Amino acid sequence: MNKYRKLSIVEFPKRILLKRICIELLTFLFFLVPAFFTRWLIDQRLELGLGIPLGFIIPVVFFALALHAFCFYWEKYQGQVFTNNLLMDYFQNLASKIASASIPAYEKESKSKILNILNMDISSIYVLSSYLIGMPVNLIKVLVVFGLLFWANPYLALISLVLAPFYLLSTYLNKDKLSKLVAEERLAADATIQDAQVIIDDKKSLDLYGAFDYMLDRFSCKVAGWIQARNHQHFYLLLTKEFPNLITTLVPLLFLIIGGNSVVKGQMSLGTLLLALQLTGHIFAPLAEMASLKADLQSQMPVFQRARDFMALPDKEEGLFAEKSLDRSLLLKDAFVLGGKGEVLFSIDKLHLPGPGLYLLKGENGTGKSSLFNLLSGVFGPENIRPGKNFCYQLAGEYTDTMRYMCFPNFIFPGSVKENICFGREIEANRLEEMASLLQLPDMDKEVTTKPENLSMGEKQKIYLARTLLSNSNFILLDEPSSNLDSETEARLVKLLDRMREDSLIFIISHNKNFDEIADGQYIIRNKTLVEL
Question: Is the dihedral of CA 63, 138, 233, 199 positive or negative?
């Protein structure tokens, strides 16, 4: 069972699993009592012509109530609590991985796939929990009841023994088919969710461009493909589970025919026959459940793999694996910055930002300015740069540890303006007030909504700037920081950055001439080459 415990990205504690198994077995033993009590009533009372005292009703009702109360709370409810706690661990593990994953590796992942792992794929936790508890419990049930059945009537026990292997036959025959179909269904679900996100998030744009009919047709095709894949999967899954149900239906009839004749011939008491019929339920119900659990687990194998693959994403890297410089500078020499298809965007002979100061990066749109910032910040991985023979990249350790990058798109979430700026960080009230005054921020208590948006582009830009400049960072990357700002706020921003450049290294993408006046150095990408002005 240990190998199955490792299928999931959450830990299934052995101690708690053993506790759940013991409770399930205890419940099973309690439920055997009515079968033996029935046999005793028939053989020791009815067969002898004795009536059953009405006084038996009270203890019988009390026992039934106690039995089902125990079953409800300890077996079913506490079992559900156990699985829900595992589910909480599942969500936390995935969320922690999203936070720790390398940005380049994470950005390559389909976001619809990640949503499905967080949403629909959670069924794998319930399946594995049921399997790890249900399989040993049902196996013990079968062994115990087989022993009781051989004690009651060996002939009926042999019939059960011969038919028992057929319960797992269909699961064994269809296991590869089930895994393949579930893998196909998950991919189809990912594609469907991907188009659903566009329809949900971009309704306004789709309406304004008259593109909704196209997207609806496209979405309908994706849904049809997904439903077809689900139908194929469910056909084989239900077929795998139905064969054991056929045996469950057949066995009691065979028992009744063979056992009934034994009763007539005096070879078996009626109470023993009824006991055997009840015991068969305790044999074939667990066998049917074992077959169902096996089929469900097999069908979830691709789902487990998806989650494990996601958890195996590499964790955050320090940009380009820069060497630690001895001074407070950035140095990048002899390199080629690459685009998404591996094409060269521009070459770098030497980029040197010597210590605290403010430096500008200029160039036409599409030349690769943001790509360079994405490389320095770690948004792009090392595959987006080609080293030359004399390649060198050095960055002060204090910069790699505190780097902040104001890029687009940025995030806004429902909450107050203050929460959107601080997001849990402890920022002194006087610094926050000063920044609010400098940037003319919206009221700190204003509640931000995203659907519909209640912030202008300029207000959002000010929030992005405030959260970046209040970060206590020694190395700040700013991509067009003055866009969407009025001239008055822009002038105050220039003065603020002029003051900050004395202690921090600030690298800015901008053609704004106001920054030229305070810049300590300027670079431009021209003719696919980075040159210093």
Answer: positive
